[in-house]
From TrEMBL:
It comes from Iodobacter fluviatilis. This is HTH-like domain-containing protein.
């Protein structure tokens, strides 16, 4: 029942976090949000839904190349160990 509702054309591009309130406003309680996520995950249907683009992680730069003076600064704040 949950899969048929989530896969219906009405909710095909809507995440469970929005399906539950929509159904609740209509007076229909099918399942909790976490149950919908669990059922979709078990059916291998849990993927990005909606119009927004997926979040893309940008890699931090690993090398710094200066093409002019004062572009790359490096500091060292380590304290040298003193003999006891």
């Amino acid at each position: 029942m949950i899969l048929s509702v989530c896969n219906s054309p009405r909710f095909s591009s809507v995440p469970p976090s929005q399906i539950v309130p929509i159904l609740s406003d209509e007076g229909c309680y099918l399942a909790s949000e976490s149950t919908m996520y669990r059922v979709l995950r078990q059916a291998h249907q849990l993927q990005h839904r909606g119009r927004a683009a997926k979040a893309v992680r940008k890699a931090k730069p690993t090398s710094f190349t200066a093409t002019a003076p004062n572009q790359v600064w490096v500091s060292d704040i380590s304290v040298p160990q003193q003999a006891a």
